[in-house]
Amino acid sequence: MARDSQAALIALNRFGFGARGGAAGDFINAASDPRGFVLAELARPNSALLEVPGLLSTPELGKQVFDYQFEIQQARNAAKAAQQGASETPPQDAKGQQRRNLSLSTAAKEIAGKDPAMQPQAADSANAAMTPSATMQPPTMQTVAGPPKPPAQPLNIIQKTFRAEALARLQRGVVADCGFVERLVVFWSNHFCISANKGALARMWAGSFEREAIRPHVLGRFGDMLKTVEQHPAMLFFLDNQQSLGPESRAGINRNRGLNENLAREIMELHTLGVGGGYTQDDVTALARVITGWTFAGRRGQLGAPGSFVFNANAHQPGPQQVLGKTYAQAGLAQGEAVLSDIARHPSTAKFIASKFARHFVADDPPPALVAKLQDTFTRTDGDLRALATALVQSNEAWQAPLTKMRSPYEFLLASGRLLARNPEDPGRYLNGLNLLGQPLWSPAGPNGFPDTAAAWAAPEGIKLRLDISAQLGSQLADRFDPRDLLELIAADAASVETRRTIERAESRQQALALLLMSPEFQRR
Description:
Elements: H1 2-14, H2 25-32, H3 34-39, H4 58-86, H5 94-113, H6 123-128, H7 142-145, H8 157-175, H9 180-191, H10 200-214, H11 222-230, H12 233-238, H13 250-255, H14 262-271, H15 281-290, E1 294-296, E2 309-311, E3 321-323, E4 326-328, H16 333-344, H17 347-361, H18 368-380, H19 385-394, H20 397-400, H21 409-419, H22 428-437, H23 454-457, H24 460-477, H25 483-490, H26 497-504, H27 509-517, H28 520-523
């Protein structure tokens, strides 16, 4: 049984989000057929899709945020006009005019001045102040986060949307049988990351970007995902491509503006070829010219439905371009799509993706044989990502490597929710926990995403915060669980003697639960 238990631990932790406390069969099922347990999720039709009532499409969300911002601007203009009019008001009507000015000014401040949508970095702080529900709550941690915060402002449409998208994602992760497909979603979403802190549009679109550009292709073709990602309004906004004009295009000549190379550079450096992948600065510039005109329609909808991807021919640099030694003479949108199709099939892309995939799931320094196997699969199947995931699970190297990776904050909080059988009804405390641990949802510090190495998440301060969270969960929930029973659920015979002894010798059940959540069997993958 010991070897099966070790394989079950790997199946649940390395490839999934851990065993569920309310489903005692998870570990048993994983132990009976570890590889089959993981691969079963890949066989389910549409297993990656997330279709939840109330979650809208990117254009629908775009229209909402455009209208919202327009209302804010109208309120500001009204307040400004009222203030200007006050100076011209006859003295006998001063008090009445002042009252009207105060009313308009206050309304404008409430809508605009304190609006986290206009200052998106503040939105998660507002989340932190929300009153939580009585569900499983990774922490606000008053001892860590400081004194109590003032009451939250009413949620605006952008905050509501962000929280609804977050809740749908969290709930899917908590209830999944193994969680392998959700782990794939998280991996690819971080690979093709945007940041919700870019602005109101990015925060509004963070969830729809993942639902529309990532999930449909997680088990499809890499080339299809690449095209969908780079044409998605959220990515175009995040990397400023809507500002990029071909220098010789009609718009470029009229406005005396030129290229923005952000998207082109990240396509090559972070999304496909990787650093040292054989491209030059000239290739970046050429690709930037190729994808001029890739933008999204604004509030007035002159080029298409507000918030939808559109190709603006007036902004596109005319003429053939040479990228990676090949000349592309196609006109308009087809030119960029042809370049992306070829880059997706480039040998450097296969190597970069295979290495990153193995590093995420297996080891910071993945076995070269595994990387070679994944690279060959990627190339041979024309970027079939289901085949790539299958090859990973079927490789011996993925099961023989020791559990040295550290769960990321997101994985840690999801694993805690699964073990403690708490399906979230409110995302606030999860969002708090992610902020506290340095992995705010959909908000990496840069276009390279969150780090994916053990050292990044095993720093002393991070471990201390995890311990604080575990201690709080222990104090809240220990009366509902016996930590010794939970240890059997997550590790059974694979639990070390040291872990068993530590939990048995704990001074209290609360302490025992906290120690279980901090054990290698729970933290390592």
